[in-house]
Amino acid sequence: MVDSDAISKPGSIDVEVAYALPDKQELITLTVEKGTTAQAAVLASGLTNQYPEININEAKMGIFSKPLDGKHLPLPADYQLEHQDRVEIYRPLLLDPKQARLLRAQKKKKLEKEKAALNKKQATE
User: Do residues 33 and 81 both lie within one domain?
Assistant: First the structure.
């Protein structure tokens, strides 16, 4: 039985490289040699040319949402891709999640104060 997702050439594998922006997502499908690293696939995808803000040496990456951080999986320069892997390039956070929660809490507190003051004003009228 022949797999419909059969590898294109002997010794090569098919992979995807994904980069998501706030308004769109880039998904590049590549055929690379077996043994290609995640970092090499990102370079081969051309996304670093198209999006110069991607610093190949500092960008956080993952394979299907599993970080290439040297703990869960090897680092991007060391991780050898497998057939049908998807390399994801992560953008840096605009705001630390703890800071975002703090700002939301402060905003909520401010709104509650304003609402209480308005209710108090309406009650005295």
Answer: yes
Q: For the CA atoms of the chain, what is the radius of gyration?
A: 23
**pLDDT tens sequence across 90-116:** 987 767 778 878 888 888 888 888 888
Together in a domain, 78 and 97: no
Separation of alpha carbons 122 and 67, rounded Å: 54
**Residues 77 and 44 reside in one and the same domain:** yes
- Please write down the HEC assignment for all residues of the chain: CCCCCCCCCCCEEEEEEEEECCCCEEEEEEEEECCCEHHHHHHHHCHHHHCCCCCCCCCEEEECCEECCCCCCCCCCCCECCCCCEEEEECCCCCCHHHHHHHHHHHHHHHHHHHHHHHHHHHHC
| Residues 87 and 114 both lie in one domain | no
Number of domains in the chain: 2
Do the Cβ atoms of 41 and 23 come closer than 8 Å?
no
Whether 13 shows a pLDDT value over 90: the answer reads yes
**pTM of the predicted structure, to 2 decimals:** 0.69
